[in-house]
Amino acid sequence: MLKYQIVIDDLRLAIKNGTYPAYSQLPSVSKLCEQYEVSKITINKALGELEAQGLISRRRGSGSFVKKVETSSAAPDANDTSGQMTGFLAEHQARGESVRTEVYDFSVVRPPHHVAEALDVDDDSFTYHVCRVRRANDIPRVIEYTYMPIDVVTDLKLKNVQTSIYSFIEKDLGLKIASAHRVIRAVMPSAEERKRLNVPEGEPLLEVEQVGYLDDGRPFEYSVSRHVHDYEFHSISTK
């Protein structure tokens, strides 16, 4: 077995068994070099792979931090994916499309238990709850249900929800959005979703369940997005 793979397997096990718990910092590259008696190149390659697998977050000048990763009840062959975090507004404006957002719920609530677990908060804590329909060129494309901890995403306003929450998080709060874990499945829409998205009865939607993470490993978002049937998901996987 290659040396970097030994490091990967050992650190992955240490993360999963709690030796390095969520949000903890891994030893420095220099200390890992001493521990495994390998070069910095080998350690950096191993850390890069662990980051690609969504287990750690690397911050220039600060080190590597363990991310909070929840297990999922999805089918055994379902793949969680991590990729570039691009919001709906930026994605569609880049295509030259006009974007409009219809917000029909913006409130502060106690999250359901499964949401609290995903966000690593207590059941009696408070989160923002956002429900909105996103339109591109005035065509409804997706309905979104989002929860965000109020002590992580602070001072969120309706005007931010009506435009880009991601932009507010990075530009106004100065936080860095790093990655997401996603589960993708086909679902049948509710009567309300059919009406809001203007889809016929019997037509499925593509659901994306997502937990978003900051670069320090903290989860900042739990969302369920239900897209109209012609939505395409593109992913790049590395080995």
From TrEMBL:
Residue ranges of every copy of the HTH gntR-type domain listed in the record: 1-69
InterPro entries named in the record: Bact_HTH_transcr_reg, Chorismate_lyase_/UTRA_dom_sf, Tscrpt_reg_HTH_GntR, UTRA, WH-like_DNA-bd_sf, WH_DNA-bd_sf
Highest taxon of the lineage: Bacteria
SMART domains named in the record: HTH_GNTR, UTRA
Keyword terms: DNA-binding, Transcription, Transcription regulation
Record's signal peptide: none
Name used for this protein in its record: GntR family transcriptional regulator
